[in-house]
Write a structure and sequence with these properties.
heterodimer, A: mainly alpha, 5 helices, 78% helix, 0% strand, elongated, B: alpha+beta, Sulfite Oxidase, Chain A, domain 2, 5-stranded mixed β-sheet, 5-stranded antiparallel β-sheet, globular
């Protein structure tokens, strides 16, 4: 992951967190969501085995949601604290 | 009993809040129907439906469970169509239901009409004479709970074929003895697990669960499985079923979800 433009490089904890959100939390969010659908689990019953049934998928889905909300809050607070306008410019124009 | 009442008031609450949202948005006089925001919400429903039909195979069976998995199952929504205090009570069909039930449903008939070659009336005995299907499946409620029960009934497909489905027919609508109606497409209607259930957990269908006959649609959420069936109408075109249908009450029509 490249360093934040004009700032210090991302720390190890940040890198781990972003990787966790993108590669673990979000895919699991989608899969547990699909496991709550009676039409989808009829076509792909493996989802029920993977998450231990639709109700435990629902519980996992809830905690993933809570995790994503906590991530979002910390993420936005850090953006604001490290130069909100600079980050917005970097996100929009690339630098 | 508390649970059922809570459900009814929740439905009213959701409808009420949705209507309030419409008032805030448009600033015009009240309407009984929830807003669709220029049909944007219904477009979402349609998009979900089309995506599911495009991406998923039509004939996959919902998981079936064993006897040991059967759980208790709450009777929610209307639990007696003859009770005038129920939220969806119908003043015409309620008393009729009361008389039919008092006679052990001997005079009860299921009418199958609309786009069929031979409109028919089925007694309970007629339906029980058709080949039956027994399935132990999970009822998933949109409120979040689920319950596993055994259902005994006749596949809807057999009943529709006995009446002769016309080639142009695409939707099947179900009307109950209370103010409930729901519709499904022909794909779900012909699904092997879509049955008209007259038995539950080895007994006759109990009053609270829709005696004498209810629909079971195992590939959609629980509210599609209409209780207290009165008649079935086969249609060529989509029909939102007006004020007793799910759409105009702010609920999705397709709930494979």
């Amino acid at each position: 992951m490249p360093p934040a433009p004009g700032g210090p490089p991302y720390g190890l904890l940040q890198k781990l967190t972003y990787a966790g959100v993108v590669f673990v939390l979000l895919p699991l969010m989608v899969l547990t969501g699909l496991t709550m659908s009676p039409a989808v689990t009829a076509a792909y019953p493996v989802l029920l085995d993977l998450f231990g049934g639709s109700q435990s998928a629902r519980t996992i889905h809830f905690f993933l949601f809570a995790g994503l909300v906590i991530f979002l809050i910390v993420h936005v607070v850090m953006v604001v604290l490290t130069g909100f306008m600079r980050h917005m410019r970097a996100m929009t124009f690339g630098d | 009993m508390k649970k059922e009442l809570a459900t009814i008031s929740r439905r009213n609450l959701v409808t009420g809040l949705a209507s309030m949202g419409g008032l805030l948005l448009t600033g015009c006089s009240s309407t009984e129907l929830p807003p669709t925001y220029g049909n944007v919400l219904r477009m979402g429903d349609l998009l979900t439906y089309r995506a599911f039909r495009m991406l998923l195979p039509a004939k996959s069976l919902a998981r079936e469970y064993s006897h040991g998995d059967i759980t208790s199952s709450p009777a929610i929504g209307t639990f007696n169509p003859a009770d005038p205090h129920q939220g969806l009570y119908n003043a015409e069909r309620g008393p009729l239901y009361d008389r039919l039930r008092a006679a052990g449903f001997a005079d009860w008939r299921l009418r199958v009409e609309g786009r069929v070659a031979r409109p028919k009336s089925f007694s309970l005995a007629d339906l029980k004479a058709l080949p039956s299907r027994t399935q132990i499946t999970k009822h998933t409620c949109e409120e979040g709970w689920s319950a596993i029960s055994q259902w005994i009934g006749v596949p809807l497909r057999n009943v529709l074929e006995a009446a002769g489905i016309l080639p142009s027919a695409r939707f099947v609508n179900f009307y109950a003895y209370d103010d409930t109606a729901e519709g499904i497409d022909m794909i779900d209607a012909l699904h092997p697990q879509t049955i008209l259930a007259y038995g539950m957990n080895g007994r006759d269908l109990p009053l609270g669960h829709g005696a004498p006959l209810r629909l079971r649609v195992e590939t959609q959420l629980g509210y599609k499985s209409v209780k207290f069936l009165d008649r079935i109408v086969v249609k060529d075109e989509f029909d939102d079923l007006g004020k007793i249908g799910s759409l105009q009450n702010g609920w999705s029509w397709y709930v494979g979800i």
